[in-house]
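Quick illustration, no need to memorize.
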Amino acid sequence: EDTPPPRRSTGETAASETSGAAGAPAEEPPATDVVESPAVDLLQSAATDLAVSSAYRDQIAQVANLVDDSLETSWNSTTGELVGAWIEVRVPANATVTSIQLTVGFTHRTERADLFTGNHRVTRVRVLRDGTEVGDYPLDPESRALQTLPVQGPGGVYRLEIAAVQPGTNASWR
């Protein structure tokens, strides 16, 4: 089976032998080849387990909305259980997490309502791996885009806990 040659890291160049003052090779360390693997969506490409603290009206099917690649769907915790709600993902031990992406709220709009501004939006999350905190991250509650948390580490159980929220404009959705 033919395999492509390893790629070099960005900005790295191959070392060449040049003559120094005495005709000896220069004192540069040789370049090393670094094999880079492209990033993949572990939730879509690896066997992962997903759990949540609760679901709105006990609609467990909502959990699938977390990983359906659509910003038009969402998972909601039980009403009134916003701060402290959590999402857990069990990532295979042989995988490496390089970041976590999420939106701060339900980005969907209908003809009658903007569900993003009407609902609470997450302003801070706490991330744990196997029960140990790896970071506490602020989020922009005005952005509908995916936001990236600079979480890095080996596989394990990653828990995202909602640490703070901004109330939405619709008082009956609180």
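The radius of gyration is 23 Å.
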